[in-house]
Write a structure and sequence with these properties.
With 441 residues, the chain is an alpha+beta fold. It has 20 helices and 12 strands. The protein folds into 2 domains: 198 residues, 3-Layer(aba) Sandwich (D-Maltodextrin-Binding Protein, domain 2), CATH 3.40.190; 157 residues, D-Maltodextrin-Binding Protein, domain 2, CATH 3.40.190. It starts with 23 loop residues before the first helix and ends with a helix.
Amino acid sequence: MKHNAHGRGRGRIALGAVAAVTGVALTLAGCGSSSGGDDDKAASSIPTGGTDDGTSLTMWSRAPLEKQATNAVTEYNKTHKNQVKLELLPNDDVEGKVGAAVQTGSLPDILAGDVVRVPYWTEQGIFKDLTKQIDSLPEKGDLQSGHIKAGTVDGKEHTLPFVTDISVMVWNKDLYKEAGLDPDKGPTTLQEFEDQAKAVAKLGKKDVAGTYLAGQSGGALVFTLFPMIWGNSEKAINDEGTESLMASDSAKKIYAAYADLAKTPNGLGAGSKEETGATWTAPFQNGKIGVMQYPATAVSALFTTSKFDIGVAPIPGVDGGSSTFLGGDAIGVSKDSKHEAQAWNFLSWLMTEDAQQKVFADNNDTASNLKVLENGYKDADPRTIVANSTIKDGQTPIAVNFNEAFNAAGSPWQLLVQDGVWGDASKVDGDNDAITSTLGQ
């Protein structure tokens, strides 16, 4: 997801899950496995808190996360002898840059990357094994675990949360009032979502639609639709990351609801079928959409600039419950680092409540420390607090080939949604089998 996962810049999508990257297997083929060798031995000797001795460290992060990455590095450099030099990589250049560095042994000391890509990177040996250090963190029990699990292979942990982006349900309260809906109550089930979208559609206002869907963006589609499955206490993929479960009865109800809206005048926003993710947040931002799933980081930026009142709630499950997509970026120490102890000093510091407060909460960004999420937003907009509350019920899908199966342009998941919403719904089962086949490659 191009968050482009964290959505910054907001046009290209907010999520760690929306980056569409191809050809990576060849790029990283020489990487090797994630375990063994001198790298693991070096990592095991790192002191619990790392070493702060004035070492110069290098770090790569995705450009869409410039705000968060810059805040983290600036705060660390102000308070430590070690100094981190940050390089921001254009989102579409990340895989090529990392792949080339793998081949030449020139990865930075600290590497942050899209959480849905981290399982593949980890399996390919890009990160050092930090199991001992991560397990010794006093804050480990308070950290959202999705970004740790994403970097766990064969029980060995390699990554920590860097930036957490989440998906929420948003609605235009002004349009809700016009449609006779309660502006303070968003949908709590799939049926309520469809009913409320139809109520806005019936207004018949020029260029206004009930909802919107990024039909050609696999990353946006998992970011927005998976939580409806999770909220129903079901799985989108199996625990091994080898089987898609997106042809279940609940999943088909989701596609059917959107198909019904697509057939309803003004039900589904114009351009939904062709939306690649480049502008998927714009229609709501412009006051043209009644209700839809949205990146929390994108909607928070609208609280003080929007000309209409915005409601925020968790994304409901098909029949109730709620969840969110824990997107964003995870972070680890690269296999090429010669300064493991110093790099770990940065990572371990970033996990502390104090750092999470100063770097994230105080800047209206989502912290990864659950205590900070609970206690560190007393002066924040109440809607930010609502969004943060969804993290405890959120999930991050973990699969080595997730990008190819779901996010990449023309992925089988993207084709499934096209068939389920705008095409021949009888093809959904076969499309789902194609996703499973890709996951198992």
